[in-house]
């Protein structure tokens, strides 16, 4: 029985890994199929689908738009989420619990419901559907994650660091710039990368708030309505590996900063 218990956990783990990554490997293989149809077995292999997608102007335009929206919305989320987290650290008791619930509530709402609400809200503000509306909607969806990640990091910082800086003559601005921000750097970088990827793949808000120029997920959805082909699998594979590389870099950067801070 002890041997079975020792064997079962690694086996379940690798089965879970296979369950997660097998569809992605199939998608990557379909992008190499020398045919206009998705089917097995693959008798001939080619890379021309990847080359076609690299020079596809419509696809590149959608990718650039998604990247621009992701960067702008993430910067807005950081600009709003960080002061929100600083405010939450100064509250205590029931008031803090209420404020935290209000801040994180948009993250738990169904995306379709929040997208419809945002569409009606921007119409009241006089904002036409398009890039500005998508940026606004993505920022609203990303801000709770920034606030929570920054608040978690702030709660782990002892008050003695800021108090020591004040005892040495530093004012509140110097304390924030020289003590608080360096401590928050790993959390802010992690929040930046997380919200960047979250915005890039956000289909529902982009669909409800977008105009005539589609983002990458919306364009993929439009193309899938006419059938799946190896070109879609190829561009999806390239985006997949790019986002994986960014995620791994963010994890490595955050871990190195955390270890460096712990050593100090």
The fold-level CATH name is: MetI-like fold
Approximate strand percentage = under 5%
Distance linking N and C termini: 46 Å
Looking at CATH, the homologous superfamily is MetI-like
**Helix/strand order:** HHHHHHHHHHH
Average pLDDT rating: 82
Query: Class by helix and strand content?
Result: mainly alpha
Tell me about the biggest sheet?
none
Concise description?
This protein has helices at residues 2-30, 48-54, 57-89, 93-108, 111-125, 131-155, 159-167, 172-200, 204-209, 216-224, 230-263. By secondary structure, the protein is mostly helical.
Could you characterize what this model shows?
The chain has 264 residues and is mainly α. The protein has one domain (56-263): MetI-like (MetI-like fold, Orthogonal Bundle), CATH 1.10.3720.10. The chain has helices at residues 2-30, 48-54, 57-89, 93-108, 111-125, 131-155, 159-167, 172-200, 204-209, 216-224, 230-263. Helix 1 crosses helix 11 (230-263), helix 4 runs antiparallel to helix 6 (131-155) and helix 7 packs antiparallel against helix 8 (172-200). The termini are far apart.
Features:
single chain; 264 residues; mainly alpha; MetI-like fold; 11 helices
How would the blueprint of this fold be written?
Layout: H1 2-30, H2 48-54, H3 57-89, H4 93-108, H5 111-125, H6 131-155, H7 159-167, H8 172-200, H9 204-209, H10 216-224, H11 230-263
Helix pairs in contact: 1-11, 2-11, 3-6, 3-8, 4-6, 6-8, 7-8, 8-11
């Amino acid at each position: 029985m002890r041997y079975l218990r020792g064997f079962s956990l690694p086996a379940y783990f690798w089965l879970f890994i296979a369950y997660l990554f097998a569809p992605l490997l199939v998608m990557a293989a379909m992008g190499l199929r020398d045919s206009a149809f998705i089917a097995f077995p693959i008798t001939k292999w080619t890379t021309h689908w990847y080359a076609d997608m690299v020079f596809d102007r419509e696809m590149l335009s959608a990718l650039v738009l998604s990247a621009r929206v992701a960067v702008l919305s993430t910067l807005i989320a950081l600009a709003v989420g960080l002061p929100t987290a600083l405010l939450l650290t100064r509250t205590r008791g029931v008031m803090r619990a209420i404020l935290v619930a209000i801040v994180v509530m948009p993250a738990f709402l169904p995306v379709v419901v929040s997208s419809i609400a945002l569409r009606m809200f921007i119409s009241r503000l006089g904002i036409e559907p398009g890039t500005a509306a998508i940026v606004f909607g993505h920022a609203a969806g990303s801000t709770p994650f920034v606030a929570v990640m920054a608040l978690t990091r702030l709660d782990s910082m002892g008050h003695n660091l800021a108090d020591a800086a004040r005892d040495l003559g530093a004012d509140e601005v110097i304390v924030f710039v020289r003590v608080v921000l360096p401590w928050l750097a790993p959390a802010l970088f992690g929040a930046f990368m997380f919200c960047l990827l979250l915005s890039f793949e956000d289909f529902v808000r982009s669909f409800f708030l977008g105009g005539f120029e589609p983002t990458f997920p919306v364009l993929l959805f439009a193309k899938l309505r006419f059938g799946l082909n190896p070109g879609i699998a190829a561009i999806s594979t390239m985006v997949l590996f790019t986002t994986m590389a960014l995620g791994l870099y963010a994890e490595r950067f955050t871990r190195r900063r955390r270890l460096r801070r712990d050593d100090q």
